[in-house]
């Protein structure tokens, strides 16, 4: 199943995990993702809810913009929260698929903020 509009997806990772991936050339996922058997990704419109639900209270997070064309058949679109199609990567994430990596700011309630230019796109 493919998503008709997405050209890129997003991965939220700790700076430490992404730095480790950069040294290895591959992001293998968090402990939860290894347990789940896939890497959780989000589309632009899913990102705010993902940050609020899964990353509130965390600091030193990075937002990685991923080129879906670089992920091949390992990227699958599956129904999850509220029946929405979420991108799941059933392989390691090659760091060469990253278009951009940037630090996320945190709001006063501890929720990471989606950068303005990501919200507008």
Summarize the structure in words.
The chain is 24% helix and 30% strand. The model has no long low-confidence stretch (mean pLDDT 91). The chain has a three-stranded antiparallel β-sheet. Strands 3-6-5 form a three-stranded antiparallel β-sheet. The two termini are 23 Å apart. The chain has four helices and eight strands, in the order βαβαβαβββββα. It is globular, with a radius of gyration of 13 Å. The protein has a single domain (8-120), classed as ADP-ribosylation fold, CATH 3.20.170. The chain has helices at 15-24, 31-36, 47-54, 116-120, and strands at 8-14, 26-27, 39-40, 61-67, 75-79, 85-89, 93-94, 98-103. The longest helix is centred in the first third of the chain and has 10 residues, at 15-24. The chain has 121 residues and is α+β, with helices and mostly antiparallel strands.
Summarize the structure.
The chain is of the alpha+beta class and 121 residues long.
Number of helices: 4
Q: Can you identify the CATH superfamily?
A: Protein of unknown function DUF952
What is the CATH topology descriptor?
A: ADP-ribosylation fold
Termini separation (Å)? 23 Å
What characterizes the major β-sheet?
A: 3 strands, antiparallel
Strand order of the largest sheet: 1-4-8
The poorly predicted ranges are none
Would you count the extended β strands for me? Answer: 8
List the helices and strands and how they pair.
Layout: E1 8-14, H1 15-24, E2 26-27, H2 31-36, E3 39-40, H3 47-54, E4 61-67, E5 75-79, E6 85-89, E7 93-94, E8 98-103, H4 116-120
Antiparallel strand pairs: 1-4, 2-7, 3-6, 4-8, 5-6
């Amino acid at each position: 199943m493919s998503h008709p509009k997405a050209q890129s997806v997003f991965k939220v990772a700790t700076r430490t995990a992404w730095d480790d991936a950069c040294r290895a050339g591959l992001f293998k996922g968090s402990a939860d993702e290894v347990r789940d058997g896939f890497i959780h990704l989000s589309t632009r419109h899913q990102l705010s809810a993902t940050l609020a639900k899964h990353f509130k209270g965390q600091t030193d997070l990075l937002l990685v913009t991923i080129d879906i064309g670089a992920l091949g058949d390992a990227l699958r679109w599956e129904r999850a929260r509220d029946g929405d199609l979420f991108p799941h990567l059933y392989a390691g994430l090659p760091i060469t698929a990253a278009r951009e990596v940037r630090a996320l700011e945190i709001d006063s309630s501890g929720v990471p903020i989606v950068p303005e230019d990501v919200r507008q796109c």
